[in-house]
Design goal:
It is a single chain. This protein is mostly beta strands. The protein has three helices and 63 strands. The strands form 14 sheets. Strands 37, 39, 41, 43, 44 and 45 form a six-stranded mixed β-sheet that branches. The longest helix has 7 residues, at 529-535. It starts with a helix and ends in an 8-residue tail after the last helix.
Length: 791
């Protein structure tokens, strides 16, 4: 792939939104960046970056936390955009401080994964994909940085010429840039003899680095591979080669905010580097990089220093025993160094009974190799407490004094190591009640007016009261779940963006929490360090300025992703049975397969839907049992069904209208048999077609009330089993009064184990004059069953 990178012509940064053809978020996929070329930009120049991956077409925004400025593309350059590659022009100021920074790209489909980039004064050369053997090594001339990929099971080779006595450093940036590559570096002479080997580094972590002074002039090789021989298009590296220091640390590790300071670097071999002046930094700068060089104008490395809001204190010597302990002010930060192996530093401070003190060390997160171990002693040197060295904390000790008086803090390197680079910084404070927060997101893709959800977890320190959450960087959002209740640790914070944030908007959001114990207010910004580590291949300490920052990309409005339908337009609810079934179907759109929960907001009083009201994930229909009073009156009304679902955190509802709920007798007469005619002095075979609204097949006895005088049934009417027709002769005496009458049909049967009698319907009966010359004119009609009509 790298040969393509070499000849890539980079393309546009689209600073103006291109939302003319918005994509549905439900069907969209956020951009994924697998590779960025180059991985570095030089101060004082204009550069072109190319992003390779998937779903990269039509970038709309670019974001960085570094000294980079994105510019529009050249005319016509956007035609080179594709789903697999896109680009941007970047301007870097002359004053840009070297170091590792972050970039993201946004499209109409969302935000890309996080990419780290270096501001570096070394020129960059692409390795290509044909240097996997010593005889095909890539020739380079220092100072230079080589960028490439490691394929599975393969080696990468670089060839260079060195003079006798020349000093060169070799520094592989891989894990520190979020690559999964775990590099191993070997320095070889022209015959293949190994001169130096580097694997994991106590400062650079999984990355490899070494400094070597060559005894003889000649050609040399560098061999680079993954320690497990793994590789892919994500296993990228940046190999820096030149006469620059490999920093172990700077001293002090902390400088006060608002003041100009000076720090001194220490190289990996323990040599001291020239002091570096650091301009006054604002209080909101958590950490800044300082350039480190062997000589002025030489190639640079860099290291980080904390900008503290506390009083920054410097260790004084001698303080190697209890009797010579140096003073430590509670409320400040102590900067110290283990000058030699086995060195121990002692600090004295005054504490009051019952006022818990807390000491928090920082070393590895600031680039120092030190592993801190803390002990708390009384004035006579007796140990009272020791630090917990587990987890990500770097030497934390808390203690509640039993009495007023002086106490001693003993500080040592856990493995007994020492030297100029083994520096540390310890914050000393009263351990007040409070809390810290963690949020589980580093980016969110939210449709216009849409919803986002994040889990917020609290770690409480002697604080049990509610914690109220809010957002910084987003105004007007509607929140729910914004309180971590008393004694609780977790909540799901749900936010709905106002529609005023139009598609293409890019927001920087932080979750903050506040609480009070009645005496003092407490505040914390939620960290998202675990998410950053996952997105950067397990990088232990991503750039400090990224911690807690969540980017929000506003996309096109969310479209509907499901529709509802009913299996039949009318739901018949039979009296006395007390239940009926409605089958609701869901039509799934845009690959939505989640559950849909149904609600019935206008059911009559006393009616309810059954417990199973959710169409499960992947299912397309659900039979819902409706229950109600067994004695409900006959009625018919519109039935409203509302379905609710969630897709990509976006809630949606769909309403099913046009379905009717009809409360009806368990058995009904076919309305087509509204009128029956019989001649006086004659008879008629009365044939009634009935409709069963209940499933029961029990026999039904029918009676007719309100027959005119002189009109009788020759035998009882009955429905046998599941048959719909009942027959009996209707007899009219000659004396029967002629004219019309209304007869009531009633039924008696067993429903739900109970014998009930109920009205079925009415029959209009006409008694007519006899016909002497022909059969009764309604006999054929009476003997022909009327077709059943469904309700």
């Amino acid at each position: 792939m790298n040969h393509c990178l070499r000849r890539a012509r980079l393309i546009a940064c689209l600073l103006i939104p291109a939302w003319a053809a918005l994509c549905s978020l439900a069907a969209a996929q956020a951009p994924t960046v697998n590779q960025l070329w180059p991985r570095a930009v030089r101060p004082g120049g204009t550069h072109e970056l190319v992003f390779l991956g998937a779903n990269l077409a039509k970038p709309t925004r670019w974001w960085t936390n570094g000294p980079l400025r994105f510019e529009p593309a050249e005319a016509g350059a956007d035609k080179q955009n594709s789903a697999e590659r896109t680009g941007v022009r970047v301007v870097v100021t002359d004053e840009a401080m070297p170091g590792v920074y972050a970039v993201r790209m946004a499209t109409v489909q969302g935000l890309s994964n996080l990419q780290l980039i270096v501001v570096d004064d070394l020129p960059t050369l692409a390795a290509g994909n044909s240097h996997q053997a010593p005889d095909r090594a890539l020739p380079v001339e220092a100072p230079v940085a080589v960028e490439g990929l490691c394929a599975a099971g393969q080696y990468e080779y670089v060839k260079f010429h060195a003079q006798a006595g020349q000093r060169l450093s070799f520094d592989v940036f891989a894990r520190r840039l979020g690559s999964p590559l775990d590099p191993v570096l070997r320095l070889l002479d022209a015959t293949g003899r190994e001169l130096a080997y580097a694997d994991d580094d106590e400062v650079a972590g999984a990355d490899s680095r070494l400094t070597y002074r060559f005894e003889r002039e000649g050609d040399y090789l560098l061999e680079l591979r993954d320690v497990r021989y793994q590789g892919s298009d994500r296993h990228f590296y940046r190999l820096r080669i030149g006469d620059f220091p490999l920093p172990a640390a700077v001293y002090p590790l902390g400088i006060p905010a608002g003041a100009a300071s000076s720090v001194t670097g220490v190289a990996r071999d323990g040599s001291m580097l020239p002091a570096v002046a650091v301009a006054a930094q604002p209080r909101d700068a958590t950490q800044v990089n300082v350039p480190l060089r062997y000589t002025a104008g030489g190639a640079a490395s860099w290291a980080g220093v904390v900008v503290g809001s506390r009083q920054e204190q410097i260790e004084w010597e001698p303080n190697d025993e209890v009797a010579t302990a140096a003073p430590l002010t509670i409320g400040g930060a102590m900067n110290g160094r283990f000058d030699r192996a086995g060195d121990k530093d002692y600090f004295t401070f005054t504490a009051k009974k019952g006022e818990k003190v807390r000491f928090t060390g920082a070393t590895r997160r600031l680039g120092a190799p030190t592993d801190l171990y803390l002990r708390l002693l009384d004035a006579q040197g007796k140990q009272l407490a020791e630090s917990d060295d587990s987890g990500s904390e770097e030497g934390v000790l808390e203690y509640t004094p039993a009495a007023d008086g002086p106490y001693i803090l003993q500080v040592e390197e856990l493995l007994g190591r020492g030297g100029p680079g083994f520096v540390y910084r310890i914050e000393a404070a009263l351990a007040e009640p409070g809390f810290t927060l963690v949020v589980d997101a580093d980016k969110l893709d939210v449709p216009q007016g849409g919803v986002f959800k994040v889990k917020v977890t609290a770690v409480r320190r002697d604080f049990t009261q509610p914690i109220t959450l809010a957002l910084e960087g987003i105004s007007g959002a509607t929140l729910s779940g914004e309180t971590i209740a008393t004694g609780k640790l977790i909540t799901t914070l749900t936010g709905t963006l106002p529609a005023s944030y139009t598609p293409g908007t890019l927001l920087s959001m932080r979750v903050v929490g506040e609480g009070t114990d009645g005496k003092k207010k407490f505040r914390a910004v939620a960290s998202n360090l675990p998410e950053l580590r996952k997105s950067l291949s397990g990088l232990p300490w991503p750039p400090a300025s990224l911690d807690g920052l969540t980017l929000v990309s506003v996309g096109a409005p969310m479209v509907d992703f499901f529709k509802l339908a009913a299996s039949k337009p009318v739901v018949v609810f039979p009296q006395y049975a007390g239940k009926a079934t409605l089958t609701v179907k869901v039509e799934r759109l845009n690959k939505f397969d989640g559950p849909v929960t149904l609600a019935f907001p206008n059911l009559p009083a006393g009616f309810a839907a059954g417990k199973a009201v959710t169409i499960d994930k992947g299912k397309n229909e659900l039979a819902v049992e409706l229950t109600g009073p067994a004695t409900a009156s006959v009625r018919e009304q519109e039935l409203q069904v509302v379905g609710s679902g969630e897709f990509q955190n976006q809630p949606r509802s769909a309403t099913l209208s046009g379905v009717k709920l009809r409360v009806a007798p368990p058995i009904e007469i076919d309305p087509a048999q509204a009128t029956v005619s019989v001649p006086s002095g004659g008879k008629l075979l009365l044939t009634l077609t009935l409709v069963r609204n209940i499933d029961a097949k029990t026999p039904v006895e029918l009676s007719v009330a309100g027959l005119p005088a002189g009109v009788t049934l020759a035998a009882p009417l009955k429905l046998e089993g599941d048959k719909p027709v009942a027959k009996a002769e209707l007899l009219a005496q000659a004396s029967a009064a002629r004219g019309s009458a209304t007869a009531l049909l009633r039924a008696t049967t067993t429903i739900e184990g109970r014998k009930v009698t109920f009205d079925v319907g009415t029959i209009a009966l006409d008694v007519m004059a006899p016909a002497n010359d022909k059969p009764a004119n309604n006999k054929p009609a009476a003997e022909t069953p009327v077709a059943q009509t469904q309700p």
